[in-house]
């Protein structure tokens, strides 16, 4: 490697080095490449060139020209988002210096003769081709090419796939919950976000962003993304469900157009259309018809009952919940996932509201709040509140093993606070 830019290595220099290094000419190809370090005046050591380690997914996205971007506000860790995945970006050191050299040739390109493998079967891909194995004529270095180092790397960015960071959707949209056109005069318009603005702000991929909007039941109203006020959302959904009974439809034979027409003049079209899309899926029996998702409908009714933070005896709650649901829907404890907890360990079995979206985004702070709310948790109970911190390689059980103590009670593994 050459430090002085005033000196160019010659063929004689190369042959001298080969001789001093006691290298076998048979193992050398025709072209030698002299590496030159950049000088400050050449501006080769560009600060805007970074080394990024990628997996097969990102490599495939790059090859197809798919869009990807870095996201991160002032107090956030940077993430890289492809169309469908989110990666946490971390800086890592390289044990040895890594040189970026433009147009550096590999073995085959440095030989003017075909590179052959010897009969011995030993892998010597750098061997120079010779006409006759017994010949004294040997192809050796007869040309020197200059190669300049563009940048010297001492670190690189490594990527780790993570769960999408949805919390910002909630934090930003809660400030402007939609409660009907009659209450819009109370909303500060400057706090509203268009779809693209919110997508650029939230640390997740585009596909995950769509899933996040569905998860938190956000819809577009007048070109702005909005979450609905719980009371208003409950009222709209109740009206939509009443259309089913009025038309005596089968649960999986709901007509969307008729439903939207029935709501004209009562609820704004965008609200009805958005809520219908969130709470329904296409019918398997009749592809042009729809059916309401029991899990989402039951969860909203349960959230409405639990929203005031009151405790309910489990039997009383289940009766109240079932009676509130429209005909054809059945209450199931599984539908309380992430919005309420059942505590059967206390003297009186009870149900209380605990919305995952209300908990701290700091893992230790969240665990502290969970264990102050309930002393012992099984995996099924605590998983909805911890899974946002999991990754494809570190699951919920691994997180709990590290940050909690576990014990077995009547054959069931329970998790308790470490402190």
UniProtKB/TrEMBL annotation:
Residues 112-136 are annotated as: Disordered. Residues 112-126 have a biased composition (Polar residues). InterPro entries: Dcc1. Keywords: DNA replication. It comes from the Eukaryota. GO terms for biological process: DNA replication; maintenance of mitotic sister chromatid cohesion. GO terms for cellular component: chromatin; chromosome, centromeric region; Ctf18 RFC-like complex. Belongs to the DCC1 family. This is Sister chromatid cohesion protein DCC1. The lineage of its organism: Eukaryota, Metazoa, Ecdysozoa, Arthropoda, Hexapoda.
């Amino acid at each position: 490697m050459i430090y002085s830019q005033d000196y160019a290595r010659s063929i004689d220099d190369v042959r001298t080095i080969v001789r001093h290094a006691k290298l076998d000419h048979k193992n050398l190809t025709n072209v030698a490449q002299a590496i030159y370090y950049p000088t400050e005046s050449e501006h080769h050591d560009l600060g805007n060139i970074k080394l990024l380690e990628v997996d097969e997914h990102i490599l495939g996205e790059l090859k197809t020209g798919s869009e990807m971007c870095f996201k991160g506000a002032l107090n956030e860790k940077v993430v890289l988002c492809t169309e469908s995945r989110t990666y946490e970006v971390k800086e890592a050191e390289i044990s040895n210096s890594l040189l970026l050299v433009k147009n550096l040739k590999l073995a085959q390109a440095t030989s003017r003769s075909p590179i052959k493998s010897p009969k011995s079967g030993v892998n010597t891909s750098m061997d120079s081709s010779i006409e006759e194995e017994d010949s004294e004529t040997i192809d050796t270095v007869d040309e020197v090419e200059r190669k300049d180092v563009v940048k010297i790397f001492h670190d690189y960015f490594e990527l780790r796939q993570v769960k999408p960071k949805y919390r910002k959707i909630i934090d930003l949209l809660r400030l402007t919950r939609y409660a009907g056109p009659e209450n819009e005069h109370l909303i500060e318009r400057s706090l509203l976000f268009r779809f693209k603005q919110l997508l650029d702000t939230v640390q997740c991929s585009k596909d995950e962003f769509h899933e996040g909007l569905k998860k938190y039941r956000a819809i577009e109203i007048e070109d702005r993304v909005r979450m609905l006020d719980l009371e208003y959302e409950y009222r709209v959904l109740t009206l939509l469900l009443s259309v089913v009974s009025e038309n005596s439809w089968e649960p999986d034979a709901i007509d969307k157009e008729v439903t939207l027409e029935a709501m004209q003049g009562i609820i704004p079209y965008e609200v009805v259309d958005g809520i219908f899309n969130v709470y329904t899926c296409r019918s398997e029996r009749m592809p042009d018809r729809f059916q309401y998702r029991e899990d989402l409908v039951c969860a909203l009714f349960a959230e409405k009952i639990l929203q005031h933070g009151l405790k309910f005896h489990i039997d009383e709650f289940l009766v109240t919940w079932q009676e509130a649901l429209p005909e054809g829907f059945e209450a199931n404890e599984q539908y309380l996932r992430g919005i309420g907890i059942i505590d059967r360990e206390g003297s009186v079995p009870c149900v209380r509201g605990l919305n995952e979206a209300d908990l701290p985004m700091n893992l230790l702070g969240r665990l502290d709040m969970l264990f102050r709310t309930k002393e012992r948790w099984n995996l099924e109970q605590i998983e909805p509140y911890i899974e946002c911190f999991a990754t494809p390689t570190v699951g919920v059980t691994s997180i709990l093993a590290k940050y909690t103590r576990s014990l077995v009670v009547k054959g069931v593994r329970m998790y308790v606070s470490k402190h």
